[in-house]
Amino acid sequence: MRRSWFSGLLAAAALLAPASARAETTVKAVLEAEIVTLDPYFTTAYITRTFGFMVYDTLFAPDAKGVFKPQMVDRWSESEDRLTWRFTLREGLRFHDGTPVRAVDCVASLRRWAARSALGGRLMDVTAALDAVDDRTFVLTLREPYGLVLDTLGTTSSPVPFIMPARLAATPPATQLSEVVGSGPFVYDRTAHIPGDHMLLRRNPDYRPRSEPADFLAGGKVVKIDALDIRVIPDGATATGALGAGEIDFMQYAPFDLIDQIEANKGLAVMNFTGPHRFTGHYRINAASKPFDDPAIRRVLLRLVDQREVLDGFGLDQRFSQTCDAFFICGSPYETHVGTELLHDPSVAAARAALAATAYKGEPVTVMVANDLEAARVSSTILADRLKRAGFTVDLQVMDWAALLARRTKKAGWSLFGIHALGLDLSSPLTNSAINFNCKDAASSGFMCDPRMVGLFDRFAREPDLEKRRAIAGEIQTVIYGEGLVVPFGQFAQPAAYRTSLTGLIPSAIPLFWNVEKQ
């Protein structure tokens, strides 16, 4: 009887306890890599972009259909001559240090960001003035009409134009920030960050989400957990084991060979991705060195690459992969299939016949294979085998990814390698890393230079009409395939995995933790 009475007293006390006394709800997540660089402009690394979307906010953001919606902006207007753009911020926006977000912060942030972003640089090239007119309003004045103003301010392509205090945006672009002060839905807790172990992001109690429902990166970013604990577990199998044991709640990339095991566990689920949220793989070709300085020899690769063979080589269920001949990816606003004839019905025999009709003289083709990235390793190895069977002299060189990136900066000593990136970044000519440095002597684009694309890029950037931009994208794609500048090897998802105790996850290749609840 005494025990029963005492238990009842404890239960009553629990009911009367203040809400603040409840246990905090923390989601434990393992992301693609450790977050090392915290300056969101300083690197194009995806993991820093993910950190940025948690801690910072943007002026505009795309919804799930790719439509750019106001985020920090309350209202905006465009003059009839399309030269003057006026933006007014939402009321009550505050940085994590308690200071209000002002128009001068936006102006300073955009200027620092544009110094690091090719897309931002294009906008600044046509900008006559960018000025704050009061605490909540700034005006962008252009020298000539530009068709991608909102697309640029709301881009997801790294680096993203996140807004920070003007005092931090005054930091030289080549110098990393010494502080992390955003205005986003999560606050970075420096005291709880242990490099090599974990990072803690806490819910921002002063964040004012938009009233619209969450829709990818647009809408209301309502945080329903108290903290996000980002754990560092580099090994995929170890992270999968931790997920199954309940030690973590979410892992960004489920290992391909463990997906069946994860799906067999009733307490776990897999999140597939489609369209721009899938990776697109392609082969980067060195256009500055023999034999691929010859476009006729480059075009042979279009007849040789069998996308389905590469995707099957990853061991992926076909739910998670698809062949696609659209250079600006299938499922994007700029999907087009013009000029793709050479990619159809690939075969070693067709490639061998095409090669025999070129001036190829047996020069070695150096294929670089990154042994620490699964997709890069498999795709490059498969292509090396097909190159040999088609009659090329192949020199297969295995190295880690860091060494590969260093090697590709040289115009000699390599011929091609496999690489992949998110469709979110590859779906526009101006953000596609394989081509957007065309004629800039850039290693990232294989030192390619086709003067026709320079003019096409400018037309694309200045065209306000989506259908006309899509037609221009088709012209660019025709040049790319006609010159054999880049060869795709398919689209694929590396799905996320999570415990079913999490609800409200937004389907996104960029991990997002607002709208999420933990049961």
Task: Write a structural description.
- The structure is a single chain.
- This protein is of the alpha+beta class and 519 residues long.
- The chain contains 16 helices and 21 strands.
- The strands form 5 sheets. A 7-stranded mixed sheet has the order 8-9-10-1-11-19-12. Strands 14-18-13-17-15-16 form a 6-stranded mixed sheet.
- β4 and β5 form a beta hairpin.
- α9 packs antiparallel against α11, α11 packs across α12 and α15 runs antiparallel to α16.
- The N terminus is likely disordered.
Structure at a glance:
This protein has 519 residues and is α+β, with helices and mostly antiparallel strands. It has helices at 2-16, 46-55, 103-114, 118-125, 149-153, 166-169, 236-244, 259-263, 295-304, 307-313, 348-356, 374-390, 401-407, 423-426, 451-462, 466-482, and strands at 26-30, 60-62, 68-70, 73-78, 84-89, 127-132, 137-142, 186-188, 198-203, 227-231, 250-251, 268-271, 279-285, 321-322, 364-370, 393-399, 416-422, 486-492, 496-499, 502-503, 517-518.
Tell me the helix content.
25-40%
Main beta-sheet annotation: 7 strands, mixed
Average the pLDDT over all residues and give the rounded result: 93
Specify the number of helices: 16
Low-confidence stretches: 1-21
Q: Per the principal axes of the C-alpha atoms, what is the gross shape?
A: globular
Strand order of the largest sheet: 8-9-10-1-11-19-12
Binned strand content: 15-25%
How much is the radius of gyration in Å? 25 Å
End-to-end separation in angstroms reads: 34 Å
> What's the total count of β strands?
21
Structural class: alpha+beta
